[in-house]
Amino acid sequence: MIASPHRRHVVFLIGAVLFGAITTAGFAADDDFIILQSTTSTQNSGLFDHILPKFTERTGIEVRVVAVGTGQALKNARNGDGDVVLVHSKPDEEKFVAEGWGVKRHDVMYNDFVIVGPASDPAGISGLKDADQALEKIAQAKAPFASRGDNSGTHKAELSLWAKTGVDPGESSGDWYLETGSGMGATLNTAVGKHAYTLTDRGTWLSFANKDDFEVLVERDPKLFNQYGVILVNPEKHPRVKAEKGQAFVDWLTSSEGQKAIASYKIDGQQLFFPNARPGT
Amino acid sequence: MLDPTSPLQGVGDRLASPPLPVELKGIVYQTGGKRVIDGIDATIETRRITAIMGPNGAGKSILLRLMHGLITATEGEILWAGRPTDRLLARHQAMVFQRPVLLRRSVAANVSHALGLRGIERDQRAIRVDEALKLAGLERHASTPARVLSGGEQQRLCLARALSLEPDVLFLDEPTSSLDPASTLAIERLLLDAQRRGIKVILVTHDIGQARRLAHDVMFMHHGRVIEHQDAESFFDDPRSEGARAFLSGGLVL
Amino acid sequence: MADFIDAFRTALGLIVTLNPDLVEILVLSIQVSVTAVAIASVLGFAIGGALAVYRFPGRGAVAAVLSALMGLPPVVAGLMVYLLLSNVGPLGVLQLLYTPTAMIIAQVVLVTPIIGALTRQACQDLLEEYDEQLRSLGASSSAIVVTLLWDGRYRLITAVLAGFGRAIAEVGAVMIVGGNIDHVTRTMTTAIALETSKGNIALALALGIVLLAIAFAVNAGLIGVQRLANRLAYA
Questions:
Q1: Is the dihedral of CA C226, C229, C230, C235 positive or negative?
Q2: Which DSSP symbol is given to A173?
Q3: Which domain holds residue B138?
Q4: What digits encode the pLDDT tens for the residues C146-187?
Q5: Architecture of A29-111+227-275 per CATH?
Q6: pTM for this model (two decimals)
Q7: Does A210 touch chain C (CB under 8 A)?
Q8: Taking CA atoms, what residue in A is nearest to C29?
Q9: Vertex B215, ends B209 and B219: CA angle to 5°?
Q10: Does position B254 have pLDDT exceeding 80, yes or no?
Q11: B-chain residues within 8 Å CB-CB of C142?
């Protein structure tokens, strides 16, 4: 049998475990939340901190955001590890719904990408109105360029621009074309550190605190517009999806209230996201 | 020989009942390709102290461990009053090793722990711990970390711990070989007291003087065999074997 | 350099004023790691003690695997637990993904081998000294395990502190299974990763300083325990 001095220690140990379990179990008990799979760029822009509390106030439903790359967000949603997905890669989103993983895709908003780079602008792209032309000049100059390289919406937008140039930057991967395989913030850190150009969404750029001497060099090309879509994960494929609460979020996001909330988000007086949900869709 | 009737702090009048005789029948113990015990046939009948003696490497410690059941013989059997060694029998035996083995806890806790292993209840344990510490002369050190005691005190504690279990048989493997004379004396007095209370003491010793003082019965071993087994007086006065003679006269026994 | 010093100053300000975000993250990190280490200790002590004492075929292989798992990369542990807890995984029905409980589970997976292997080593060393005496006293194998665990308590405390040091400092496991959700599963390490990626060096630094302070405290604790053990001749 365990002698008395040991007993005190065993009791303490059990007490510690129980304490930990009880205090952390509190999180599991509360069921009024949905999980939103979205992207790091949206998260880092600060949009969610601005609009989600409004939704929670209206409905009492907490929205827990898991911010990963677009590819991972859709994969997670495919696994049923999320109730709603909000990303910015229309072809992938449509495929997601077509394959039955999502109920319906709704336009929500768009923001835009910009090409940023060092003030010295070695490739001379500042002020160009054509984004793919800018990329071509960067390739010709072999100026360093940092790519997300992570299958995200931003990455895919970047790749579609390269496709228009006829240049395959992948051939120079590791040379002047740096694929970080990371989120937007980490990629920006790398870009700034290596004096490399990069494609970024305006939101992340505005709230990024480590700009050094970088500036926005190319913007407002319509090809740089970035459309967001929201989809409820299909409860028929994953019965544990919180369909009702998830749909409430989708509805709110596309409602005039949600759209106003999106429009009201500004950094330094600049609006980042432009709501464009169409009623009835 | 020390006077076995000299008064000691008694520990009650419980008399032990060791299962005698001990019969060693055809004992062989082989390890690492060597027959360390090379065929032993012997019987121990006396209730008085038996000393196992012999040069280094004779197999004395191995024989002790075989009798206590810590290792199993390769061949042969050991019978206690006709019963082979088993766990139940071993519960009524105790052993003290050459170097004291004490846990990292207090003096009292060491004894208490041993009693706990035997399933003794908490209240009984406290009483027996008290008695054991008195017996060993260590009451003042009850809360002291056991490993801080001197060598002699530690060994007294090990012996007291063994005795607190109220064994019928007590094995000791050269218990005083590294102790000073005062500690040795204390240990020997405890052994005589144990004998007086009926405990069968089987003692491996190198110390001829000690054997003379304590033993009534001597087994002399050499090369894994028992080559002499007789009462102490005859053994010391007139050893029959070449090896024993050489040993007793202080020479090297090859 | 000026930016760095500036960030440092801001960081200290956040710490001294007990910035609520900082405190919330700190409390969660400690809750998760302490709970995980408590559970891992119970498991690790049992596994380590049993491995040292009980004989069974394949014992050597199990011990070797346990030692190897000490070096399990946190991201791998996170990935393994994620696959278990995902909705398409075997334990999806428990809906534990993206909760602190999932983070605790992942850290238990990470820390148990550390405590287990160190416990096994400690018990093995003690067994060399105690084996014969304990068997002579009639101790069963389970009683021997308990005796060794108590006797080796200072070494076990060291093992627990080592396990805690690992848990509080890792980011890979908790990031994957926790999702770094604001106010829910954001720990010091995942917050540092996030704030760094946002360029919020000040907050990242503040968290880093706190984390370092904890690491130092754990180390000091380790040394203190060893000194105490020596002083009491319990080493």
A1: negative
A2: B
A3: 101-166
A4: 999 999 999 999 999 999 999 999 999 999 999 999 889 999
A5: 3-Layer(aba) Sandwich (3.40)
A6: 0.83
A7: yes
A8: A24
A9: 100
A10: no
A11: none
